[in-house]
Design a protein that fits this description.
Helix content: 25-40%
Number of strands: 6
Shape: flat
Amino acid sequence: MIVHNISKTFFSSDGPCHNVSPHTSFPWSQEPVDFLNIPDDSEEGYILEVDMEYPPELHHQHNCYPLAPEKTTVSHLEYSNYAKEILTRLNLPKCKPSVKLIPNIRNKEKYVIHYRNLKFYVNLGLKVTKVHRILKFQQVNGSKIALISTKNNVKRRQQTLKKIYFSF
């Protein structure tokens, strides 16, 4: 999928959720959900915790842009041969292990993902081997929120301009 207008895509898609704060406790469940057949504009959204297999036949095809990045601690043992060669050539010390968001072609365990991204990954060839748990929530259409907010801002500005105009 190529996105030419990111703001249009964002505002025309469903947002994450409605009436939720970071401190809300979500009820996780194990009840099965057929995430492949849930419409993208569904009022109910799902976050799934899954195990995924990255089939070997996709490794070469996805090598430049692997799917499903992971937050991983990278140590000098995991450097590519090229990176090791540069460190040696420039006589630089080994770096301390650091946490990075790394796209890779490894299998994923307990990977937490929105159902629409999971559908996208499955359509590109990844295989879901196990669903651990599912979180269900109410989605809100981003365009509705943006339009209402913009409409209210325009109305407020017009009222302010009228007050200023008629005060002279």
